[in-house]
Amino acid sequence: MVLSTGYKKIKTAVFISGTGSNLKSLIKFSKLKKSPITIEMIVSNNPKSKGLNLGKIYKIKKKIFNFEKQAKVEKEILFELKKNNIELICLAGFMKILSKDFINNFKGCILNIHPSLLPKYKGLNTHERAIKNKDIYSGCTVHFVTSKLDSGKIINQKKIKISKKDNPKTLAKKILAEEHKLYPRAILKIFSL
Length: 193
Prior knowledge:
By secondary structure, this protein is an alpha/beta fold. It has 2 domains: 9-107, Rossmann fold (3-Layer(aba) Sandwich); 116-193, 3-Layer(aba) Sandwich (Rossmann fold), CATH 3.40.50.170. The protein contains 6 helices and 7 strands, in the order E-H-E-H-E-H-E-H-E-H-E-E-H. It has a 7-stranded mixed beta sheet, with helices on one face. Helix 1 (21-30) packs parallel to helix 6. It is globular and about 50 Å long. The termini are close together. Residues 1-5 have low confidence and may be disordered.
């Protein structure tokens, strides 16, 4: 996907499950003149997700989907995304694994941010695993989403040092602060000329 100057901004949906801190940083980024995206929709599988409040604050359409019947719900989500001309999906702490069919509908247009230096520590509990293995570094990765979990092409990464005092909670906090900077940089990198 290449974006050149003079084009309209890329209509983006952000998928969340929790507090929405990455969503908030993406919304702020989307308001910048240099940003190639505009956030048109927030999608969540969790009706109690705090990030949904950002929809109210920034007047962004929000949709909550129950993932109990995944195949059915994914069809509904795809319908909503197409209806709203969404061209890019950013997963930001979205705790559901999307099916191969869904991903193929948005091939090359789904990004994810992951709290480890992929290919290390795919999946969950990344901070606990890094500390348990006495790693010197951890970090975060923005990558394209494929049907293999946390295995798509890496766009960029940020490495941070794990201090001897770090526990999973302090490490998570340090990495989250970096995620907020890394995600916008990844988007700029993809859509730069």
